[in-house]
Write a structure and sequence with these properties.
Length: 721
Amino acid sequence: MTQKALRLATALFAAWLAVTALPRAQGSGEVALRAAMETENVKGDLRAAIEQYKKIAAGTDRAIVVRALLRMAECYQKLGDVEAQKIYQQLVREYADQQEAVAIARARLAGSNRAASSGGVALRKVWTDTNAGGVSYPGGISPDGRYLSYAGRFNTAVILRDLIEGTERALNGGDWGTVASAISKGGSQVAYDKCAGVTGNSPDALHCELWASPLGAGSLSPREAFERLPILTVWPLPLGNGNLPPARRLFANDDVINIWPHDWSPDDTRIAVAIRRKDRTAQVGWVGVADGSLHVLKSVDWRGPIRMFFSPDGSDIAFDLPASDTTDDRDVFVLAADGSRETGAVVSQGNDAVIGWSPDGRHLLFASDRNGTMGLWAVPFADHRPHGASIVLKPDIGSVLPLGVTRSGALYWSAPTSDIDIEIVQMDLTTGKQTASPVKPIKRFTGTNTQPAWSSDGKWLAYRSVRGSAEFIGIRSNDTGEVRELRPPLSHFQGLTWAPDGQSLVVWGSDLKGREGVFRIDARAGQVTPIVMPAGETRAFYWSPDGTRLYYPTRSPNGATMHEQDLSSGTERVFGTSITGNVLSPDGRWIAGVRTEPPTGSAAVVLIPVDGGESRTLLRLNRTEGRVNNILWTPDGSALLALKMTGTTEMTSDDNELWYVPVNGATPRKLDVRLNRVVTGGQGRIQLHPDGRQLAFVSGRYPVVEVWVLENFLPALTAKR
């Protein structure tokens, strides 16, 4: 900032203080003004404060009136409402004698005009998720920008957050789960899905329904909703405020295993939905609010749309779809709400995703990486089709999930943020001591790297890197530190490990045609080959030492079982019940895992013989002693390393212990090794280098969600029209 700009900013700030903060005579107007400021700043209720400022602005004391008008404009600005500009214009036009207030109003108007003339936008963060449960899937924004709906990380309730007051409540709770939600255009209802069988079941066992709840319903806190989950066997009705009606089921069909509500029509009579049927057919359409009827408009790629938005006049629905079944790039389409026509609105060489509509319907908003980074764009729209060239509004917005555009033209979106990364700690298993402080070996795309995997010769460290919707495999040389990357043609993958030959990597996941299974990835070319496509769900796999057999657990409605697949003959053998954290011993004779033992709920680290026979218990923990989240074998197969979490139940913790558990029955011992901020769950794992002296783990805080609002883009569009 130049000295001239600094002096101007200082002068304006001084003028602002003179108008709003200096002591005044304590008349009735001053008392009312201070009461309104308390409502605004202490209680955080901007809309109530606006009503108080309006009453003060109707008075005759012009000095008090201009202060109330400035404060009211500030409230509107925080809400993303263009009414703020009208108030600044009123001050300039009608209160020339109040020079300090007019100077501030002119400065605010000038700043807005500069943003409009340059095509710039005002971007501010309105909320960072700090809840213990966390955000699993942000849903929608209310038309006034006050309320956000989202599914908690444990997917047990729809949570409604008041972005102004900073409070929230769960609209439901129970032994079902939820993912998607959308707030009605009238701001009075929330639509959401309710699914049974979300955890641990195959897709065939999944059953989802579409429900709607009054916006004012619900009194459970998000944590209470989660804690009630294990004991509730029926869906509780929302605890309404006043005479609010209860939640009601809009749609259910045994053939539909998923239904995701995306947006309400402007008149609140229809809800745009994406569905998936048992045969994996995906469709888009809408559900009638009055009778719950499903109107299918189009069958689509199994991956379906990420987002869908009704046009402001309700005649069209915009959505994005994969460009083909050989790429994860997407294009944007507009479909008539009666199914009579379809338009390719944004079709380009790149990744395009629908963001929403301008309130007047003259522009369709979308995100695109056509210029190398994911930016915000708008295409003029008229007569149900694009008219004119696309306009870039913001060149770099990153990976975002759009939440909607408010009546005033403010665009809300959510974006994940994380500091998760891979660390390596040096240690000596003989002495049980840590020999050096942990280091982070990967210097690129920090905050995105998880699932470390050492090659069998110890020369390479592979890992998974997630940037937005794209998933990469990084391979780092331990000798030179050089990193090369692969982007396998898979819609998602997990469980990264090396094949015994050291020339390929193996993951479980889904290909671009929606087929789930275990896949081999060439470590040089990145080519993908399916290995096993099991009938049930699998989330892990283990190679025999000679690379001829693959072991994996599956889950199905009939239970969890362990399988052995002979890769040369294709024959399969089921040899036991699956347990948590299965890992195969270096000699291929044992599978180690963690078994919960009823009725006490104690956890036992056990060995299961691959060729049959009785299991052996190596370590037992009661509920008060903690739980084991990761286990792995030492290179010589003489012991297991077990990561015991002793504190929080969250997915990241400093309260952990690393234990050495001999398989010969000797007494387990705690190692003097500390893994700070270790991450467990699907993103984290511990991996021991073949030399037995380097332990790779994932550290950081589990990804949280930030909610942002983009303002002033409507003037930018007007200026470029």
